[in-house]
From TrEMBL:
Example GO molecular function: oxidoreductase activity
Gene3D superfamilies in UniProt: B-lactam Antibiotic, Isopenicillin N Synthase, Chain
Source organism per UniProt: Rhamnella rubrinervis
Family label: Belongs to the iron/ascorbate-dependent oxidoreductase family.
UniProt KW Oxidoreductase keyword: yes
Name listed for the protein in its UniProt record: Fe2OG dioxygenase domain-containing protein
Keywords from the named record: Iron, Metal-binding, Oxidoreductase
Segments forming domain Fe2OG dioxygenase: 109-209
Keyword Transcription: no
Pfam name, any one: 2OG-FeII_Oxy
Length: 253
């Protein structure tokens, strides 16, 4: 967790409490939608949530916002702020491993980065249902802004630990590809969202390597093979076929 300037979150309150009827997933497909789980056999393999998922390359396109065109400007501003912060943090983490911070600029151009506005409709608190199923984020770094409702948990020492809402803080997660790049010095943490009797909102900014970047470890002996990201198995294809993403295993040597 890191301290953030409280006005930042207040300024973006309109986004955090975005209308629950943002452009439907169907109309949002043009901007990149989420995929379900065709292999699910139990309710807790589904996520009780909907998401407005928008690549940075489309953030200025009015068609992505449907009737909520007033959100466009604040989305652009929010994405620019998060992008700067994510790059700065990832740069510091890269420098900590003895690399130039510019390696992040070289690897992660905006073409693969995206924002996701998550909405978790109210549901009785239950261990049987997830707001968002356990997962790790796939990219380099995620910056997450959550409201005051709570429900986010992360795996620590084989136990789920609640990440208490703090309106003065942002949550920063390492993603799978940063774990691979750092040769496991940084770990992508598993997390999930539980349901809540109040509706909940969060916004995530995902800093991701561009599809034409070579992903491999920055240290020897490397635990992960170097491969062009576009040649590795597509996580979305896998989710729609086998019900879960392939994650880091696709890079292991
Ligand atoms: O809503 C949250 O707190 C978590 C969201 C998340 O993990 C994601 O969008 O990948
Ligand atoms: Fe996540």
């Amino acid at each position: 967790m890191m301290d953030s300037n409280p006005p930042l979150l207040h300024h973006y309150g309109a986004l955090l409490h975005h209308p629950s009827s943002l452009p439907s997933l169907e109309s949002n497909q043009r901007c990149g939608g989420l995929v379900g789980n065709p292999k699910a056999t139990r309710p807790n393999q589904f996520s009780w949530s909907e998401a407005f998922h928008i690549p940075l390359t489309k953030i200025s396109e009015e068609t992505c916002y449907g009737q909520f065109s007033t959100l466009r400007e604040v989305m652009e501003e929010f994405a620019a702020t998060m992008s700067k912060l994510a790059r700065m943090l990832a740069g510091v983490l890269a420098e900590n491993l003895g690399h130039r911070k510019e390696v992040i600029e070289d690897t992660c151009d905006e073409s693969a980065c995206f924002l996701r506005l998550n909405h978790y409709p109210a549901y009785p608190v239950s261990p049987e249902i997830h707001g968002l199923v356990p997962h790790t984020d796939s990219g380099f770094l995620t910056i997450l802004c959550q409201d005051q409702v709570g429900g986010l948990q992360l795996m620590k020492d084989f136990k789920w630990v609640a990440v208490k809402p703090n309106e003065e803080a942002l949550i920063v997660n390492i993603g799978d590809l940063f774990q691979a790049w750092s040769n496991d010095v940084y770990k992508s943490v598993e997390h999930r969202v539980m349901t809540n009797k109040m509706k909940r909102f969060s916004i995530a900014y995902f800093l991701c390597p561009s599809y034409d970047s070579l992903i491999g470890s920055c240290r020897e002996p490397s635990m992960y093979k170097s491969s062009l990201l576009e040649n590795t198995e597509n996580k979305f294809e896998k989710i729609s076929k086998i019900g879960h993403k392939v994650g880091l295993s696709r890079f292991l040597l």
